Amino acid sequence: MPADPSRSFKWATIICSVVSIVFLIAAAVRENISADWRARQAAFREILTRKAKDAAARTAARNLPIEIRQVVVPALHAVDRCVTCHLGIDDPRMADQANPHRTHPKRLLTIHRVEKFGCTVCHQGQGAALNFEEAKAEDYFWDYPLLPAKFTEATCASCHNPRALPAGSAGRLVLGAQLYEQKGCGGCHKLNGKGGQLGLPLDNVGLKTKHQFVRTNLKGSQTNWNWLAEHFRDPAGIIPGSLMPVPALSRPQVEALTVFMLSLRQRDLPAEYLAPDKIDEQYARLHPAPPDGAALYRRYCAACHDTGLFSRWDKLFQRFVPGIRNAAFVRAADDESLAVNVREGRPGTPMPGWGPKAGGLSEAELAALVAYMRSSAPAMALPAAPARGDAARGATLFAQNCAGCHGVAGQGLIAPALANPVFQRAATDAFIAQTIRAGRENTPMPAFGRAGFGEAEIGDLLAYIRKWQPAGAAAVALGRQP
Ligand code: HEC
Ligand code: HEC
Ligand code: HEC
Ligand code: HEC
Ligand code: HEC
Ligand code: HEC
Predict the structure, then answer these.
(1) Taking 60 as the threshold, does the pLDDT of residue 473 lie above it?
(2) How far from 293 is each of 237, 352, 367, CA to CA, in Å?
(3) What separation in Å is there between the alpha carbon of 146 and the centre of ligand 2?
(4) pLDDT above 60 (res 475)
(5) CB-side neighbour CA atoms (13 Å) of 72
């Protein structure tokens, strides 16, 4: 009789089934019987038994069930099984043990009860995981992996005003927020609707997932905190050609600023989870104190203009940033032109607008900034400008004496763009004439009056420079004589 032709297929099927079943059994054993957490719980049972003071406690310890434990917090959408391994987390007797059995540091869980808060609201990580690598979730498709202990303070800000917390409980976070002010990050980034626009708004930078950062040049750990720290050490090393200056920070300062960045996240948390100090903070934001010009200047202007007393060479912008508190400038400019420059900025240059529709500052804040600039020197009564002369002669003078710094077409080069429409609108003829005549001390702008330019040449230059004035704009828009 010929051999059954399907015989070899039957064997193959049987062998495959057996192999699959073996794998399934092995997986079941690994997941259930030899799971890491079971060994952790058995070890914890030993520790409890050793620490038991009497027979009853010893019996209770020995009978501690080995089972998955979890904290379910529907209000936070959390199912946290961390306590399956971290069994001693709220037991003060476990302070001398190693992780995962050790008591939680800083008594944080006596204030935030485990049943109400769980763990991931502060730590992030994958709550439902039953082994530590998956709980950490760094290399998994998990948006918010476990924060390293030194960065965990970042999440305090979701429910607290960190400055109102007892000293030492969120020290890095508070330092990071201070550095943000001191380093003038607001000059290029918006936060709470206010700030410059050269960089992105940072309100939710702490909610970004790692896939939202460009990581092509990131070496080492691919986590957000490593991206942020490396970007602070050298922005252009991470984003080639970045216009963000190196913030010059020590290692602890980099950590503090990274914690502050991670804390920037608008989270939807139920009101009962917000601490009273957070509610006070939200109230204070809606009822701000009267604006303080010096503080606003530090926060929004100093990153580019420094003290403003001299003109600063910026190697990333490849141009001089004007000394806007320099007496020579402030004497020649009136309050209205200062306000126009600040409100509207100089489009097409790094100088952003700061009015309500751009940088988000209120009229009261703009006025405080103008008053702060004004405090360097009172406005002087400017000598009258000469009549506008011959534009063709002016063009030649400009090409010979000015174009090297201001650009042939007034487009701005290493010195300000004179063809800029906001400059044209804010500046009066008297201001331009005075700037050419007297120059500006402590800046590269020479005093052409001392270099032999008479009023006639200045009149010719004025005629040429005013050809860039947008039609009908004139200083008339400011209700003044041009
Ligand atoms: C209120 C916020 C908060 C909650 C809730 C919280 N933690 Fe923590 N936890 C922290 C902070 C902050 C630190 C770092 C403290 C420090 O500076 O040393 C920390 C530290 C730890 C450490 C020690 C880290 C180390 O390096 O030794 C462990 C372990 C830990 N937490 C586990 C848990 C577990 C498990 C839970 C849930 C049962 C939990 N935490 C709930 C904020 C919290
Ligand atoms: C399977 C057991 C297990 C689970 C589940 C688990 N952990 Fe741990 N955890 C450990 C062990 C073990 C260590 C000690 C690791 C070490 O020292 O290398 C640890 C350490 C930590 C640390 C110290 C910091 C660190 O990176 O070493 C923190 C914080 C922590 N766990 C938080 C959590 C949180 C939050 C969860 C829940 C999302 C969780 N763990 C779930 C076993 C676990
Ligand atoms: C999910 C919200 C939430 C998070 C996250 C959180 N807390 Fe709290 N915290 C609270 C609430 C709510 C209270 C209770 C306030 C009360 O009842 O007085 C509180 C109270 C406290 C208190 C005692 C009261 C006080 O203000 O002095 C301290 C200290 C404290 N938290 C520190 C921290 C620290 C440090 C962190 C970050 C590691 C943190 N909290 C994270 C919600 C939170
Ligand atoms: C002169 C302008 C300027 C200043 C000042 C500045 N930045 Fe930036 N920043 C930028 C620009 C432009 C980018 C986009 C290019 C890049 O990522 O490097 C950027 C990017 C960033 C990013 C990445 C944002 C994202 O979502 O990709 C962070 C975070 C950041 N800056 C934080 C800061 C902090 C904190 C400070 C203060 C120490 C600061 N910046 C000061 C211009 C600036
Ligand atoms: C060596 C470079 C240099 C030369 C040459 C130069 N300037 Fe300037 N100029 C500057 C700089 C830099 C500023 C900004 C000063 C500051 O930092 O406050 C400036 C400012 C000005 C301003 C005020 C612009 C503003 O935004 O308020 C005017 C007007 C001006 N220059 C006109 C001229 C004219 C006209 C000439 C030629 C006759 C000239 N400058 C030649 C460098 C130069
Ligand atoms: C990102 C960098 C940057 C920031 C931040 C910045 N400025 Fe400027 N600002 C400049 C540059 C660059 C110019 C010169 C524009 C040009 O070259 O045409 C300028 C020009 C000005 C001028 C005109 C000066 C003149 O010579 O006529 C004023 C006034 C001024 N800024 C005020 C401010 C104030 C007030 C703030 C803060 C609220 C501020 N700037 C923030 C870069 C900046």
Answers:
(1) no
(2) 35, 18, 8
(3) 9
(4) no
(5) 2
